[in-house]
C-alpha cells in the first residue's frame, strides 16, 4: 500500500510513536514507588510489634480471623484491660541468672511455664503451618504445643516436625465412635495429654462481617479429623443461619452435656484437661468427674461477648479445685509481666495464641521462636525484679488487684 507518499511501514511507525506519547500508555506506567520496608526481626523488641508485620503480610481475611473477637469485642478488649488492673508489688531483686523457671504440668516437663495454645489453620499464616510452629516451639527451649483439632496438617506430621512435647485439642463430636477415632490418632502421634474444649460457639463476628466483601475465600483447615467444632469450618458461614434457625446461632456445640464429658474421660488413658472454664462451679464439677486439669479460657474473647476476662476469674477457679489439679490460663497475654501476673493468681502455666500466630505470619518459624524467647526473657527479668528466684516463690502477695 502506498498513497500520497505514505507507506505501510511509515503508517505503523507513526501509530506506534503516537501511542508511545499518549496518555493511554502513560496510564499503564505506575508512577508509585513503595520505599517502605519490612523491619528485620531483630529490630522488634516486644511481641506486640509482630502484629503490625503480620498485618502487612497477610490477606485481609486471614489477619481478621486472627484478630477478631465475638460480636462487639467487649470481652476481647477486657481480656487485655484486666492486666492493667493488676499491680506487681516491688520486692528485693535477685540475680536474673539465678532465676529458675522449670515446671511440670500433667507429667509434661517444660523449661518455662508456657505452652503454645491450640489455634486453627496455621497453614494460612505460613506454608508449613503447624509443622513450622512445632519446630519453632521445640527450638525455643522445648516449649510444649497443644495441637488444634482444626490444624492445617495431620497430627502425626505436626508431631514429627519438632521434638517438644505435644498435647492435642478435642472438639466434642456427637458420634462417640468418631470421637474415639480422633483421640486414637492423636494418641498414636504421641500426644501426652488431651484438652477438650467446651466453651460455646460464638453466633457471629462483627469484625468478620465488616470485611466480608474484601475476603478472598475460606482459610481452609483439616487436621486429624478435618475441620471440626466450628473452628476452620465455621468461618465461612459467619452470620448465616442454620437450617430452620433464623438467629445465626451455630448448633455445632449446643448439645454439650455432662454425660458426654464422662464418656470421653473413660476413653482417654492419658491426662485430660478441659478448656473454656470460667466459673468455680464448672471447675469443681469437671474435677469431680475425673478431669485432671482446668484450663481457664474464653477463647481469646471469641466465645461470649460481655463475659468476664479470664484474669478476673482465675483466682476463683484456682481456689475451687484441689491443689493437685493444675490450672492453665490464656487470653490477653502480651508480655512476661502478664505471665507473672497470671502465675501470681494461681496459674500453673499459660498458653499463647495470637502472639504465636503473629510471629508465624511475620517471619515464619523464626518469628515464633523469637516471640517465645522474648516472653521467656521478659518473664525472667520480671521475676528477678520482684525478688522471685523460682516459680514456687510466686504467690498472691506479689500483686495488688483492682478489678472493675
Task: Please outline the helices and strands.
Blueprint: E1 2-3, E2 6-7, H1 8-20, H2 23-28, H3 49-57, H4 60-67, H5 74-84, E3 86-88, E4 103-105, E5 108-110, E6 114-116, H6 129-139, E7 145-147, H7 155-160, E8 166-170, H8 176-188, E9 194-197, H9 206-210, H10 258-267, E10 272-277, H11 280-288, E11 293-296, H12 310-320, E12 327-329, H13 336-344, E13 349-352, H14 354-363, H15 365-385, E14 399-401
Parallel strand pairs: 6-13, 7-8, 8-9, 9-10, 10-11, 11-12, 12-13
Antiparallel strand pairs: 1-2, 3-14, 4-5
Supply Rg: 25 Å
| Largest sheet: number of strands, sense, barrel closure | 8 strands, parallel
Proportion of helical residues: 25-40%
Could you name the CATH class of the largest domain? Alpha Beta
Q: Based on DSSP secondary structure assignment, what is the total number of beta strands? A: 14
Note the total helix count.
15
Q: CATH superfamily of the largest domain, please?
A: Aldolase class I
Strand order of the largest sheet: 6-13-12-11-10-9-8-7
The structure class reads alpha/beta
What is the H/E string? EEHHHHHEEEEHEHEHEHHEHEHEHEHHE
Low-confidence stretches: 220-241
Q: What percentage of the residues does DSSP assign to strands (E)?
A: 5-15%
State the separation between the terminal residues, measured CA to CA.
Answer: 89 Å
CATH-assigned fold name of the largest domain: TIM Barrel
